[in-house]
Design brief:
The complex is a heterodimer of chains A (about 675) and B (about 575).
Chain A: E1 3-9, E2 13-20, E3 26-32, H1 38-49, E4 56-62, H2 65-72, E5 78-83, H3 89-92, E6 117-120, E7 123-124, E8 130-132, H4 136-149, E9 153-157, H5 166-178, E10 183-186, H6 187-190, H7 196-226, E11 232-236, E12 242-244, H8 245-248, H9 258-273, E13 279-284, E14 289-295, E15 298-299, E16 301-302, E17 317-318, E18 321-323, E19 329-333, E20 339-345, H10 364-370, H11 388-402, H12 406-428, E21 440-444, H13 448-459, E22 463-466, H14 473-478, E23 483-494, H15 500-520, E24 528-538, E25 545-549, H16 556-574, E26 583-594, E27 613-621, E28 624-632, E29 642-643, E30 646-649, E31 654-657, E32 662-665, E33 672-675
Parallel strand pairs in A: 1-4, 4-11, 5-6, 5-9, 9-10, 13-21, 21-22, 28-30
Antiparallel strand pairs in A: 1-2, 2-3, 7-8, 11-12, 13-14, 14-15, 14-18, 16-17, 19-20, 22-33, 23-26, 24-25, 24-26, 27-28, 29-32, 30-31, 32-33
Chain B: H1 7-31, H2 35-38, E1 43-49, E2 54-57, H3 67-79, E3 88-91, E4 103-112, E5 115-125, E6 154-158, E7 161-162, H4 164-172, H5 177-205, H6 207-230, E8 235-243, E9 253-262, E10 265-269, H7 285-297, E11 314-317, H8 338-354, E12 370-376, E13 381-387, H9 417-423, E14 426-433, E15 449-455, E16 459-464, E17 485-488, E18 496-501, E19 507-508, E20 511-517, E21 522-526, H10 541-549, H11 555-562
Parallel strand pairs in B: 10-11
Antiparallel strand pairs in B: 1-2, 1-5, 3-4, 3-6, 4-5, 6-7, 8-9, 9-10, 12-13, 12-16, 14-15, 15-21, 16-20, 17-18, 17-21, 18-19
Helix pairs in contact in B: 1-5, 1-6, 4-5, 5-6, 7-8
The chains are: A alpha+beta (about 675), B alpha+beta (about 575).
C-alpha cells in the first residue's frame, strides 16, 4: 500500500484525507486539534485512520504554526540591524491610522521592540553605488549587544539592498561569525524588492519564526519517523504549492497562509473534475468567511499581504479576502435603528444562543435554526443538541426593536450577512473587472453550503458546487499540491527601451535559481513547469499590474503582446486606459512548479442503496413556511435530481436548496451541483 | 424609518453606497500619477443624491467631509439644467466649496432612464497647480492668485468627450504637466466605476427604492448623530488657542470657540476669533465646517455613515471676514491643514470640560508639509516632490497616544523612502522617533519624528508646519508635547535652525517658501509630540522604565517629569 496523506490543522479539528495510490480508495476523518502541541493532533489523526505510517509515501501538511505565532505574538525575540537613521522605519510604518475616527486607537506592538533594533553606518544609493562603506566595527559592536541580550534570531535590513545586497550580506556574515549559535538573515536574501518596510518586515518575520517552525517540524518529523514513516514530509505554502520540511525551515514566512491555501487548491481540483476552471471559493466558518478567485484553474495571486496594520509581507501568495461574517456573527440593532450583523462573533464560547453554553445574543447560526435550515437534533451528527426556543426568544427580542416579526428578523439577519458576503464577492469579481456569471462558486467550511446559493444569487453566479466532505476540503487540497517556489527580482526599464538580451539573461538566472531550489528538495516529479510574470505600469503610476509572459524567451513580438495585454488588463480592471502612454517594467517573477499531484477519483463512499429523502421539515423561504424534504447526501445517486425547496445534510454541514433551484451529484467527483436547471 | 422601506432592504442598499465609493477610491489610488494620490492617499470619493446631498463618502480625508458637499452644489449651481449625461465638471476654487487649489474635484450627474438620479464626485490632491512655490505650497502668499490656477466650475468633459483646450490650459499652468493626463484618467476611472456600480444597484432594486434609501440614509445618520449628542452633558463650553503665525507676520493668531450642547443639538460658535489675516492660514467656510464635523465625529458616532444627515443637528456660527471665514482675495492654502485642525483642537478643548473622562490630549495637528522644487531650465527639468511627516497623537484615558501618525483632517500615507529616492534627487537619511518629544502624562502623548533628507541638486524648499511656537496641549493635567522645528545641515558646522526655537530662544516661523538648498545640503524636521493625558506622577513606573529602556524618554525626563529615578 502507498498512501498520500493530507493533514490540515484548524482551530477545532485536525483533518486528514488519505488517498491510496494503488487502490484509488480514499479516507477522510478528523480528530481534535491539540493547541498545547499541534504535532500531537497530527499523530492522533493518523493513528485514528489506522493507516500504518510505513505505508505512507507522502504527507502534505497545512499548518497554522506560523499563523498562530504571529497572531499570539509567540514568535522568537528577534534583533534587527539596519542602516543608521532608520531604526524606527519598521515601527513608523506608513503613517496612516487604521480607524479614521477612533481617538483611543493604538498601533500594534512592533515585532522587534525598539531596544532590540540597532543601526550601523553604511549607505547604498538607488543605483547600487556605495555612498558610505559598511562600518564593520559597528557591526561587531552590535553583535556584542545582541549576544549580551541572548537573542538568537537576527535580521539585517539595509536601505536599497534590493539593488545591491552586498552590505547586507557582509554584515550578516560578520554577525554569523560573532554569533555562531544565532540564525541570521539578510532582507534582500528573502525578498529583493523595492520597499524597505515590506522587505524588512518580511526578513524580520523570517527570523522571528525560524526557530519556532524548525522546532515544530523537527519534532513532528522525528515522531513520525519514530512511528515508522519513511516517506517525504511536505508543508503547504501560502502560494498554494508544497515545499519540503527541510527547505521550508529557511522560508517560514511562506507558511503564513498555509491553512486556507489548502482549501483553495482543494476547490480548484474538485472544480477541474467538474469541468469548472473559473471558481470563486467561499469558505465560511464560525467567525469569518474567506473568499478567493481561481481563473483557468489558477488561483489568483497577489503580494498585498499584511500580518497586522502596516506590517506588509509582500511575498506572492493566493489572494484571500477575509471578512468578519460567519455562523457565529452577532446580530444587533444600532443607534439609528438599523439591523447589523457582525463583525463581532460569539465564537465557540459563549457561542450562538442555540448552543446553550451561555450565548445570549442572536447569531447567524440561530437565524438558520429558527428558519428550519438546521436540525436541532442532528447538528454535528447529533453530537450537539440545539436550543430552538432560546434562539427564537433572542431573535424575537431583537425583532421588537425593529418592529419586525421573529421570522422576518431571522430572514433579515441572513439577508444582511449574505449581502455583506456578496459585496466581498463583488469586490473580487466586478471590482476587478471579472464577470461573476463566468464563475462557479465553491462552498466549503462549516457554514459555506448553508449560505452559498443565496449569496451566489445576489451576485449572479450561476452555479454552486459543494465538494464532498466540505469540512475537510483543506486536507484534500493538501494532497493535490505540486511543489512550487517563486523567485523575484527588481527590474526597472521602460518597455520601449527593453534590452532583450539583458532581461532574458536575468530571467534565465532566476529560472536557474528556482530550478535549483526545486531539485534541492529531491522529490521525484512528473515534470517541471516554469512561468514568468512581469509587473508593469504606466510611467508615473506607483501600482503595477502583473502580466503573464507566455514566451519564456522574450522577443520583439513578445514586447508587443505584453504591451497589448497590459493596456487590455488596465481597461478591464479600471475601466480606462491609454495605449499611447509609456509603459514601464518594475519586477520580474519566475514560478517553478514540480508536478507531483495526480488526479484523484473520489468514489461513492457508501455504495448503499437507500432512499435519500429521510424526512420532511418546515422551513422558511422568502418568509413563507414550506414543507421541505431533507436528503442524506451520501445516499443521493447520480441519477437523482433534488428540487428546491430542499435541504441536503451530511455530517458537518447542510446545503440549502431554495425553491426554483435544482441540485444533482456530479458523477466525476460526488460534488453537489446547484443551478437553475 | 421611511414607510416605503423595510429596514433590511435599506441596510442592504445603504451598504452598497459604501461599497461603491470604496471601489471608486481603489481605482483612483491604483492608477493615479501624482505621488500624493497613489502613495499618500490624499483624495476622497463620494455619491450624492439628485438634490446634491452627500449620501456616502469614502473614509480617506475628513477635511473633505463638508467641502465635497459644497463643491457639488457649486457645480450644480453653475450649470443648472445644462448639466447633462456624459458631462464632467472640474473645479478647485476654495471660495466655491474647494479646500485649497491643489484639491481638484470632478463631478458628474448620473442619469437613469433620462432622469437625474445621483451625482458621483471624485476629489484628489494634485502634485502642482502652479503658483509662487513648488507643489503650490506658498506660506508667504498674500493673495490667492499666488497659490496657483483657480478653476471655477467648468466642464472638462462634454458628452464624454474631453475639452482639450481646458486640459491644455491646466497642463500649461503646472510644474508637473506629465501628471495631468494620468490624474484626469484616474478621476474618470473613479467616476466610471461609480456609474457602473450605481446603475447595477438601480437595476436590481429599482430607482424608487434606491431614491428612498438615499433619503433614509440621511435620516439614519442624523438619528445616530443625535443619539450620540444626547449622551453628552448639556452646557456651554469655551476654549481658546493660537495659530503660531500666518507665514507673513511672526505673530500668534488668537482663535476661540464656544460649544453649546443642548439635548440633541450642538452649536459651535467661532465668534471672537481673529479677523482674516495676511498669510495663507485663512480657511473658507466650507472647510471650517469640515473641521467642525470631523472634530466632533471622534466623540459622537464614529461609525455613522458620513453624509449630509450629520450636518443637521450641528449648527455652526462663523462671523464673516475672520480667519475661519475669509473673503477673496485672502490666501488659504494652509487653512486646510493648520486652521481646520485648529477648529478641531478648539472643539476638543471645549469637550475636555464637558467629558474629561473621555477626552484625549491634542494631536500634533496640521500635516507638516515639506516640499522641494528642482528646476533646471537648460535641461528642461521641472521636479516637485514632498513629504508629510506626522507627529504624535494625544495620550488617552486608556493608553499612550499613537506615535508618528497622520492627523485628524486626513489619513495620508508616507512617500516611501526608496520610491522617493528612485524618482527624485534626494536621499532619505533619517526616519526615527524623537526622544522626549511626547507630552508627559499618566498616559503620554505619541512621539514625534526626527526625519532628514539630503537634497542632491540645487532646490527650493517650502515648509508650512504649525505647533512650533506652542506644543500640542495636554489635557486633565497632562503636559504639552514638544513643539516642532526645522534645522539645516544638522551635525555640521553649518547647522542652523531655520524654523522653531533657536538656541537663543528666538522663535522663527516654521512657514516659509523658496528657501534655497544647495546640492548636498540636508534638512531635518522635528515633528510635534502629542499632548499627555492626566498627571504624569500617576504613570505606572513600569511604563516609565519601559520607555527609558526603549530610549523614547531619557533618564533625565523620567526623573523630572515622572519622578522615577533610574
Amino acid at each position: 500500500m502507498a498512501y498520500k496523506v493530507g493533514i490540515d490543522i484548524g482551530g477545532t479539528f485536525t483533518d486528514l484525507y488519505a488517498y491510496d495510490t494503488q487502490t484509488g480508495k480514499s479516507l477522510c476523518l478528523s480528530s481534535s486539534s491539540t493547541p498545547e502541541n499541534y504535532a500531537n493532533g497530527v499523530l492522533n489523526v493518523i493513528e485514528k485512520s489506522k493507516i500504518r505510517p510505513e505505508d505512507i509515501e507522502l504527507i502534505v501538511h497545512g499548518t497554522t504554526v506560523a499563523t498562530n505565532a504571529v497572531i499570539m505574538k509567540t514568535y522568537e525575540k528577534t534583533a534587527f540591524v539596519t542602516t543608521k537613521g532608520m531604526r524606527d522605519l519598521i515601527e513608523i510604518g506608513r503613517f496612516h491610522r487604521k480607524v479614521l475616527y477612533d481617538p483611543y486607537q493604538q498601533k500594534p506592538e512592533p515585532i522587534v521592540s525598539r531596544d532590540n533594533r540597532f543601526t550601523v553606518e553604511e549607505r547604498i544609493d538607488k543605483d547600487g553605488n556605495v555612498l558610505e562603506a559598511l562600518n564593520e566595527n559597528d557591526v561587531r559592536q552590535v553583535a556584542a549587544k545582541i549576544r549580551e541580550k541572548g537573542i538568537t534570531s537576527v535580521c539585517v535590513g539595509f536601505m536599497n539592498s534590493y539593488v545591491n545586497g552586498k552590505h547586507e550580506k557582509r554584515a550578516a556574515e560578520i554577525l554569523k561569525e560573532e554569533l555562531p549559535d544565532a540564525y541570521v538573515i539578510a532582507s534582500s536574501q528573502i525578498l529583493p524588492n523595492i520597499g524597505a518596510l515590506g522587505r524588512f518586515t518580511t526578513g524580520i518575520i523570517n527570523a522571528a519564526l525560524y526557530h519556532l517552525v524548525s522546532n515544530y517540524i523537527e519534532n513532528l518529523e522525528d515522531r513520525l519517523r519514530g512511528k515508522g514513516f519513511k516517506g517525504k514530509l511536505l508543508l503547504v505554502q501560502s502560494n498554494g504549492g508544497a515545499i519540503t520540511a527541510e527547505l521550508v525551515r529557511t522560508k517560514p514566512e511562506t507558511l503564513l497562509m498555509s491553512g486556507p491555501a489548502g482549501g483553495v487548491v482543494g476547490a480548484l481540483s474538485i472544480g477541474k473534475a467538474s469541468g469548472q476552471e473559473d471558481i470563486i471559493t467561499f469558505d465560511m466558518g464560525g467567525t469569518s468567511t474567506d473568499i478567493s478567485i481561481i481563473e483557468k484553474s489558477k488561483p489568483f495571486m497577489s503580494s498585498d499581504f499584511e500580518i497586522d496594520w502596516d506590517m506588509p509581507v509582500p511575498i506572492p501568495l493566493i489572494e484571500i479576502i477575509s471578512i468578519g461574517a460567519g455562523g457565529g456573527s452577532i446580530a444587533w440593532v444600532d443607534s439609528g435603528g438599523v439591523l447589523k450583523v457582525g463583525p463581532r462573533s460569539a465564537g465557540a464560547y459563549p457561542g450562538p444562543v442555540c448552543y446553550g453554553v451561555g450565548g445570549t445574543e442572536p447569531t447567524v447560526c440561530d437565524a438558520n435554526l429558527v428558519l428550519g435550515y438546521l436540525d436541532a437534533d442532528e447538528f454535528l451528527d447529533g453530537d450537539m443538541k440545539l436550543d430552538v426556543e432560546g434562539a427564537k426568544e433572542s431573535i424575537r427580542k431583537l425583532g421588537e426593536k425593529l418592529g419586525l416579526s421573529m421570522i422576518d428578523t431571522a430572514k433579515g439577519i441572513l439577508e444582511i450577512v449574505n449581502e455583506n458576503m456578496a459585496n466581498a464577492v463583488k469586490e473580487v469579481t466586478i471590482g476587478k473587472g471579472r464577470d461573476p456569471r463566468d464563475f462557479a462558486l465553491s462552498a466549503f467550511g462549516g457554514a459555506g453550503s448553508l449560505h452559498a446559493v443565496a449569496c451566489a444569487d445576489k451576485v449572479g453566479v450561476p452555479v454552486v458546487l459543494v465538494p464532498p466532505e466540505p469540512g475537510n476540503l483543506c486536507a484534500f487540497g493538501d494532497i493535490n499540491m505540486n511543489l512550487q517556489n517563486e523567485v523575484e527580482s527588481f527590474y526597472f526599464s521602460k518597455l520601449d527601451d527593453l534590452d532583450l538580451k539583458d532581461i532574458n539573461k536575468r530571467f534565465s538566472n532566476m529560472d536557474k535559481e528556482g530550478i535549483g531550489l526545486l531539485h534541492s528538495q529531491k522529490v521525484p516529479t512528473n515534470g517541471e513547469t516554469i512561468k514568468h510574470v512581469i509587473s508593469m505600469r504606466y510611467t508615473g503610476q506607483s501600482y503595477e499590474l502583473e502580466i503573464e509572459c507566455d514566451d519564456l524567451v522574450i522577443k520583439e513580438d513578445t514586447v508587443k503582446t505584453l504591451a497589448e495585454d497590459f493596456h487590455a488588463t488596465h481597461k478591464k480592471i479600471y475601466f480606462v486606459n491609454d495605449p499611447d502612454s509609456e509603459v514601464e517594467i518594475t519586477k520580474l517573477r519566475t514560478t517553478v512548479i514540480g508536478e507531483i499531484a495526480e488526479e484523484i477519483n473520489i468514489q461513492d463512499q457508501t455504495g448503499e442503496k437507500k432512499e435519500a429523502k429521510s424526512k420532511t421539515v418546515k422551513a422558511y423561504f422568502d418568509g413563507k413556511e414550506m414543507d421541505t424534504p431533507v436528503y442524506q447526501r451520501s445516499l443521493i445517486t447520480t441519477e437523482d435530481i433534488v428540487s428546491g425547496p430542499a435541504i441536503v445534510r451530511e455530517k458537518k454541514s447542510s446545503t440549502i436548496i431554495p425553491p426554483g433551484k435544482k441540485c444533482r451529484i456530479d458523477p466525476n467527483n460526488r460534488s453537489l451541483i446547484i443551478e437553475n436547471l | 424609518m421611511n414607510k416605503k422601506l423595510d429596514p433590511i432592504t435599506f441596510e442592504v442598499v445603504r451598504s452598497s453606497f459604501d461599497y461603491i465609493t470604496k471601489m471608486m477610491s481603489q481605482t483612483l489610488q491604483k492608477i493615479s500619477f501624482s505621488p500624493i494620490m497613489y502613495d499618500q492617499v490624499d483624495f476622497s470619493n463620494a455619491l450624492f443624491d439628485d438634490k446634491a446631498n452627500l449620501i456616502g463618502q469614502t473614509t480617506n480625508v475628513p477635511v473633505h467631509l463638508a467641502a465635497m458637499h459644497h463643491c457639488v452644489n457649486a457645480a450644480v449651481e453653475a450649470f443648472k439644467d445644462d448639466f447633462n449625461e456624459g458631462d464632467v465638471v472640474i473645479l478647485n476654487d476654495p471660495y466655491r466649496g474647494g479646500t485649497h487649489n491643489m484639491d481638484v474635484t470632478f463631478v458628474t450627474p448620473l442619469f437613469w432612464d433620462g432622469k437625474l438620479t445621483a451625482y458621483a464626485c471624485s476629489r484628489g490632491h494634485w502634485q502642482d497647480m502652479g503658483g509662487k512655490a513648488a507643489s503650490s505650497e506658498s506660506p508667504t502668499a498674500v493673495h490667492i492668485a499666488e497659490e496657483g490656477l483657480r478653476l471655477p466650475p467648468t466642464k472638462i468633459f462634454i458628452n464624454k468627450e474631453p475639452v482639450t483646450w481646458l486640459i491644455d490650459i491646466i497642463r500649461n499652468n503646472t510644474r508637473a504637466p506629465y501628471f495631468i493626463d494620468g490624474d484626469i484618467r484616474a478621476h474618470m476611472g473613479a467616476l466610471n466605476t461609480a456609474e457602473k456600480h450605481f446603475f447595477e444597484l438601480v437595476e436590481k432594486y429599482g430607482e424608487e427604492t434606491v431614491r428612498a434609501c438615499m433619503e433614509e440614509a440621511l435620516d439614519y445618520t442624523e438619528r445616530r448623530t443625535r443619539a450620540a449628542i444626547a449622551k453628552l452633558p448639556n452646557g456651554v463650553y469655551e476654549a481658546e488657542d493660537y495659530i503660531d503665525a500666518d507665514g507673513v507676520n511672526n505673530e500668534a493668531i488668537y482663535v476661540r470657540a464656544t460649544v453649546t450642547i443642548e439635548d440633541e443639538d450642538i452649536t459651535v460658535d467661532f465668534t471672537g476669533s481673529s479677523p482674516t489675516v495676511d498669510g495663507p492660514v485663512n480657511f473658507p467656510l466650507a472647510g471650517t465646517c469640515s473641521g467642525v464635523y470631523f472634530g466632533l465625529k471622534f466623540f459622537l458616532d464614529l461609525d455613522a455613515p458620513p453624509n449630509a444627515g450629520m450636518y443637521r443637528p450641528i449648527h455652526i456660527i462663523v462671523p464673516e471676514n475672520t480667519v475661519f471665514n475669509p473673503r477673496w482675495p485672502a490666501p488659504v492654502y494652509y487653512g486646510n491643514l493648520i486652521t481646520s485642525e485648529k477648529a478641531a483642537d478648539l472643539i476638543w478643548q471645549c469637550l475636555e470640560k464637558a467629558i474629561p473622562q473621555d477626552i484625549v490630549g491634542m494631536p500634533y495637528a496640521d500635516c507638516n508639509p515639506i516640499s522641494w522644487g528642482v528646476v533646471n531650465a537648460r535641461e528642461g527639468v521641472s521636479d516637485t516632490f514632498g513629504e508629510l511627516p506626522p507627529g504624535g497623537w494625544g495620550g488617552t484615558p486608556y493608553g499612550d497616544g499613537m506615535s508618528a501618525t497622520y492627523s485628524r483632517h486626513g489619513n495620508c500615507m508616507d512617500f516611501t523612502p526608496e520610491q522617493m529616492e528612485l524618482l527624485y534627487p534626494v536621499i532619505c537619511t533619517e526616519r526615527e522617533f524623537k526622544t522626549d518629544s511626547a507630552g508627559a502624562g499618566k498616559f503620554r502623548g505619541g512621539l514625534g519624528l526626527q526625519v532628514s533628507w539630503k537634497i542632491l541638486q540645487n532646490a527650493t524648499m517650502n515648509l508650512g508646519m504649525g505647533r512650533s511656537r506652542f506644543g500640542p496641549p495636554g489635557v486633565c493635567g497632562g503636559k504639552d508635547g514638544l513643539p516642532s522645528s526645522v534645522i539645516v545641515n544638522m551635525g555640521t558646522d553649518k547647522e542652523k535652525v531655520i524654523g522653531g526655537y533657536t538656541k537663543d530662544h528666538e522663535y522663527l516661523m516654521t512657514m516659509f517658501d523658496n528657501y534655497p538648498m544647495k546640492a548636498g545640503e540636508t534638512v531635518t524636521m522635528i515633528t510635534q509630540g502629542g499632548g499627555g493625558y492626566g498627571d504624569p506622577k500617576e504613570r505606572d513606573p513600569e511604563l516609565v522604565k519601559k520607555d527609558v529602556k526603549n530610549e523614547v524618554i531619557s533618564k533625565d525626563a523620567a526623573a523630572r517629569e515622572y519622578g522615577v529615578s533610574l
